[in-house]
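User: Hi! I'm a student and our assignment asks us to look at how structure tokens line up with a sequence. Could you show me two examples?

Assistant: Happy to help. In each example below, the sequence comes first and the structure tokens follow. Example one:
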Amino acid sequence: MVHANIRNTASPLSVRGFTLMELLVVTGILTVISALILINNNRFGGAILLENLAYDVALSIREAQVYGIAVRRYGTSNFNIGYGMHFAKASPTTYVLFADAVASNGLYDGCPDSFSCELVESTEIHRGFRIADLCATPSSGGGEVCGLERLDILFKRPEPDAFISANGVSGVANPSALQERGRIMLESPRGDRLSVIAEVAGQIATQ
């Protein structure tokens, strides 16, 4: 009789764990990928918010244009006034829709008293966005001039044309001071910029 000597050569299952170095490498890769995703997301989100702000400003200028040519009543019985937008370097997070009711000069004159006030609506800019610069192109020729202290854009019936005044010099009272184009430069907290442009012929665009 032949006896077979059978040996169990199978080794028990062994589980190999991760070393500390492998864990650190994987963690580092995940951290880098997450950081890149967050940075790109913030950049994309900031660009979208800046575009939305530019569209809001452009729509506000368009609203002033509609009010100006649609004979919108101001006060109790005043129908013969223009409406405009006022931007000031001193208030980079605010812009104003106004009725040219006090001096009829195409400029925002504020509220001298409780009976005479040109303010229709004031809009605040939030989340660190702001008006970075104000520019205008003179009708008399020459290039665009930036660094303006204020910019006023008025619309008055019957034409949709814009009366653009720079630095508080009325283009309504002094036609030679009218500007061909006004530009409101908006800036995000990251430093990205986008402009809203108003042309003398009434066109409004973002750039």
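Example two works the same way, sequence first and then tokens:
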Amino acid sequence: MSYPLFKKDGVFYKKVFGIAWPIAAQSLITIGVNMLDTIMVGSLGDDALSATSLANSFITIYHIFCMGLGMGASVLVSRYWGMKSSATTEKEAYNAEHALRQTVALMLRITLSLAAVFAIATVLMPETIMRMYNNEPEILRLGARYFRFSIVTYFFLGSSLVCTIVLRSVGSVKLPLFVSMGAFFVNLGANYVLIFGKLGLPRMEVAGAALATMIARLFEAVVICGYLLLMDQKIAFRFKHFFMDTKSLISEYFRISIPVLISDGILALGSNAVTMVIGHLGGTYVSANAITSVTQQLTNVVISGVSQAGAIVTGQTLGEGNRERTMEQGYMFMGLGFLLSLISGLFIIAISEPVILSYKNISSETADIAREFMIAIAMIVLFQGTNSIMTKGVLRGGGDTKMLMLADNLFLWILAIPFGLLAGFVFKLSPFWIYVCLKSDQIVKTIWAWTRLTSGKWIKKISTGKVKEA
């Protein structure tokens, strides 16, 4: 049976954007913080900008791992929430609620353990990590200094991020938005004071940027995690549940969530491989990429919000037992993805020059490379946005996490990375074609996502595990 890509369905679009807009707004605020960091640090020169950008590339690996953990848990949480909401007996409601809390407990344990691994690595070998991206002595020195003030940030970043995703999965989307608003002003004020040495404090430059980010992450973690553990009534997860017995759900959690973690983890490594390729092309390429990556994130906020809404809506609809409605919604998400991606591409073209000109102290060569990157991004986003809503949203929400893991690995490591290396170091192509080659997996993945959607094989069964009677 075929379904329309576009359909007049006010209930569907209202639900999707009701979930998506606070997520998008929160992402926009986060990107605003990153852009302010880039502009403030950029005023210190190309070396400082490159060092903080490359150091954050490593921290972004952890961030994406946490996104994988959170989104993997979200597949289960949204499904269990749908089961609980549509339960017809007390036993069904109890089983769903118990499995939901087990999912959160497992997610938090893994997140904090992973934070410890990254923190230890940052303590023991900051310069070694920086050498993965660049070999210039001044960039290495500044990057290592940035790392020294970022060690505890992993714990705050991870815990607040995964708790935010879980709250979104049950419809609590506004609180994280308000917390991000507060974190924006905390980060802005701390940046101004610590980077430039205001209010009688010493001028810390790149170290000040790292410390300001840590303070903002601490603020987010205290409020978000505090709300989940003390006030939330939907999940009703409390500190004692962190230590609850999770044996009955471990196999189901690993089956669904771990492929998402691996998939997003491999994506993080792949994204860093892209950064490494660009980094070894020279400092001007690094600076240009730092400028354009913020712009790409800026235009991706709505798509990212709709992607997460896709996973949540799909999971809840399947939890209610409505497979036919899920298929219909999948096609509508595909149409919505293409439309939003087209708008994003046009937006990138419109803002590219003003964004580049806002960086006053960059070289003309950096600006020229950034212009070529912008054109490439505007083209690639047509494919990247469309497949993101499908792979990170609908197909993931359907439980098709193993196939997504395989697709992410194959297309990135067999296609995109080799093409990018050849384009940059063998054929010495222009920045435009280097970027297109490094992102060529997005084109192929869009075609694959369409064939997977039409097959219907992406809808998987998920159990609550074996639980004791309430």
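Here is something you could point out in your write-up. Residues 10-455 form one domain.
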